[in-house]
């Protein structure tokens, strides 16, 4: 059974940096797309970043582009999300998700991903 386990969230101040990690367990190979989404209180879950199975092809939401970088470490079966210049509007629960049926997902919506982690809270104070 595939499990995704996020870590690294916390309380930071505006302008700070934070690194989130997602450990992928139970998947025998690395040929799958993986993404980060976030959900703020009272809002829909929204796309943040996605990477293909190589990690070389990535795409970011306009709201985080230039401030966020996604990395894959397939040797360690982890995916990280490096976030810089954090803003109060980045406050949300961050989830990693994977689509095991494809090596990249151009559909940047939650419905396109079939395995999810439990989420990690990121709170940015002003």
Written overview of the protein:
The chain is built from no helices and eleven strands. It has strands at residues 3-7, 10-13, 18-25, 33-39, 46-51, 58-60, 68-73, 78-83, 92-99, 115-116, 120-125. Strands 2, 4, 5, 6, 9, 10 and 11 form a seven-stranded mixed β-sheet that branches. Strands 1-3-8-7 form a four-stranded antiparallel β-sheet, with no helix packed on it. It is globular and about 40 Å long.
Give the arrangement of secondary structure elements.
Elements: E1 3-7, E2 10-13, E3 18-25, E4 33-39, E5 46-51, E6 58-60, E7 68-73, E8 78-83, E9 92-99, E10 115-116, E11 120-125
Keywords:
0% helix; 11 strands; 7-stranded mixed sheet; 126 residues; mainly beta
Strand content: over 45%
H/E element sequence: EEEEEEEEEEE
Tell me the radius of gyration.
13 Å
Terminal CA distance: 40 Å
| Mean pLDDT, all residues | 94
- Biggest sheet features: 7 strands, mixed
What's the number of helices? 0
Overall strand count: 11
User: Roughly what percent helix?
Assistant: under 10%
Overall 3D shape: globular
Query: Which blocks of ≥5 consecutive residues have pLDDT under 50?
Result: none
Derived structural class: mainly beta
């Amino acid at each position: 059974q595939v499990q995704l386990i996020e870590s690294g969230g916390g309380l930071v101040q505006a302008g700070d940096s934070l690194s989130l990690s997602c450990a992928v367990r139970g998947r025998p190979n690395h040929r799958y797309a993986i993404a980060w989404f976030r959900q703020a209180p009272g809002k829909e879950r929204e796309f943040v970043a996605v990477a293909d199975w190589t990690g070389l092809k990535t795409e970011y939401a306009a709201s985080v582009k230039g401030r966020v970088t996604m990395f894959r470490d397939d040797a360690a079966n982890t995916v990280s999300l490096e976030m810089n210049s954090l803003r109060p509007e980045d406050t949300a629960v961050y989830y990693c998700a994977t689509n095991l049926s494809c090596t990249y997902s151009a559909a940047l919506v939650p419905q396109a991903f079939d395995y999810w982690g439990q989420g990690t809270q990121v709170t940015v104070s002003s």
